[in-house]
Amino acid sequence: MERAEAEAIYDAGREAVVSVLLAMSEQIAVLTARVEELERQVARNSRNSSKPPSSDPPWAPKPNPKKPSGRKRGGQDGHDGHHRQLYVADRIEAAWPSSCSGCGSSLGRCASGAPSVHQVAELPPVVVEIIEYQLNQVRCMGCETVTYAPLPEGVPRSAFGPRLHALVGTLTADSRVSRRNVRDLLDTVFGCPISLGAVDAMVQRVGSQLQAPYEQAVRYIRGADVLCVDETGWKIAGTRSWVWGAFTPEVGVLRIDPERSADAAERLLAGFTGVVSCDRYGAYRQYDERQLCWAHLDRNLSDLAAYPEPTRSTAETLKAVCDEVFTAWRAYADEHQDRARLRRRVGQIKSRMRNLLDDAASNGRDKKARRIARGILREFDCYWTFASIDGVEPTNNDAERGLRRTVITRKVSFGNQTQRGARTTERLQTAAECCRRQSRSLFTYLQELADAATRGDPAPSLTPA
Fold first, then answer.
1. b (16+ CB within 10 A) / e for 79-117
2. CB of 427 within 8 A of CB of 211?
3. CA 206 – CA 173 distance, rounded (Å)
4. C-alpha span between 126 and 6 (Å, rounded)
5. Phi then psi for 128, rounded to 5 degrees?
6. 221 in Cβ contact with 402 (< 8 Å)
7. I need a surface site. Which of 147, 161, 382, 410 has the fewest CB within 10 A?
8. How do strand 252-257 and strand 290-292 relate by DSSP bridges?
């Protein structure tokens, strides 16, 4: 073989090896980036993303770890104790000593001081009272028509009374007890054997009675000045749906909708002209006055701080600004500062954050930081509404707390199987949330609701007087 031919073969082989190595290098870079992204996804938890705390694995970092105080566990020396208060006794039984504990002599019943009191709280046997109404029939001597006696006034046509309806509704809506477990509880504890279908019929009846109060609550939130809104997943007959929630300090309304869209938000908030406190979901951009949630932004920046430089530095700098916002708000809320002072303090933070975002948005070295900064700048003014309008907070935490019961219900149930069941669920959940926010008893409210339905009176309201 000639030298020139050998060199040509060598050069061709070397070019082929270099080509393969370059291809492998590119593939390794892609796979490395993919592994890093997957590791970041695994590391996401409720502290750096929108995932709920219930999804955190056991090894997730604990929120806000506190420094050890050096004190022992439990009550500290010298603190005021907390003692159970004495009840008003329904029955008093006096006990007397029969013999002296010192010498054993017999003792009479002449008290030498105030008695020592020992109270026992006990649940009496609870058995459902069955009342039978015998509606007699009488035949007319003239026309021979048979007439039955009507039910006495205040007696429901249902086979179950108002208190039993209120109990079943409370167990279902507030305690998240399944229909099957409600049936077992009524049988074993209250001595009332009942079918599963009868339990569901009672729940549906309570839902029907709640229609007018629910519609009134919807009108109330549509006329509010400030609303916290959010949405979470749900299922109807196995199909993905959504629970939309709108909350004021005293009223919370939930609505189940098959869509997660701007139209679905408008079906709940039709005609609302106040301030919407929400996350960055695009369905809420149709509302002019918004307060975007700083807690969501803080979690997203915590996630970005796990990326390599220079994204990490940008995220950490912006996160420090978030901490300043929270500090300013806590100072206002805890120390009762006036809003003018809050506006001045927030104005300084806002100006500094604007400069940071402008620098990051024009940074050609870091595409991710540039995209983040431009996204925040797109709705920048919506982050600062809380500084100028009373009743607006920097976070949307109130809406997330309002949906928490529904989220737990979703985790322990199959959702609903019919649209009628969905209407019942949203009304019961709305009643439970309104009563919780107004410090009212849901059981008492549902009993009043059933009593009003029996008498034919208007249903009691779920909104403040």
1. eeeeeeeeeeeeeeeeeeeeeeeeeeeeeeeeeeeeeee
2. yes
3. 11
4. 102
5. -60, 130
6. no
7. 147
8. unpaired
Three-class SS of residue 311?
helix
Query: CA-CA distance, 285 to 393, in Å (whole number)?
Result: 18
Gap between the Cα atoms of 180 and 196, Å rounded: 6
Question: Which single residue is written with the structure tokens 């983040």?
Answer: 372
Three-state secondary-structure class, residue 147: strand
Query: CA quadruple 227, 229, 235, 237: dihedral positive or negative?
Result: positive
pLDDT tens digits in sequence order for the chain, 465 residues long = 566 676 677 677 778 888 888 889 889 988 988 888 887 777 777 766 666 666 666 667 776 667 777 777 777 777 777 777 888 888 898 888 888 888 888 888 887 788 888 888 888 887 788 888 888 898 988 888 988 888 888 888 888 889 999 999 999 998 889 999 999 999 998 888 999 999 999 999 999 999 999 999 999 999 999 999 999 999 999 899 999 999 999 999 999 999 999 999 999 999 999 999 999 999 999 998 999 999 988 888 888 777 777 778 888 888 899 999 999 999 888 876 778 888 889 999 999 999 888 888 887 677 777 888 888 899 999 999 999 888 899 999 999 999 999 998 888 888 899 999 999 999 999 999 999 999 999 999 999 999 999 888 999 999 997
- CA–CA gap between residue 336 and residue 349 (Å, rounded): 20
- Cα gap 266→221, rounded to integer Å: 13
Closest CA to 47 of 302, 281, 297, 231: 302
* Nearby residues of 164 by Cβ (< 8 Å), 6 or more positions away: 128, 186, 192, 202
The two three-digit tokens of residue 352, written as one number: 């500094």
Q: Is the peptide bond before 156 cis (omega within 30 degrees of 0)?
A: no
The two beta strands, 290-292 and 137-139, are unpaired
Which has the closest alpha carbon to 391: 244, 224, 271? 224
Cβ atoms of 270 and 222 closer than 8 Å: yes
Q: Residue 325: which of 346, 342, 339 has the closest Cα?
A: 346
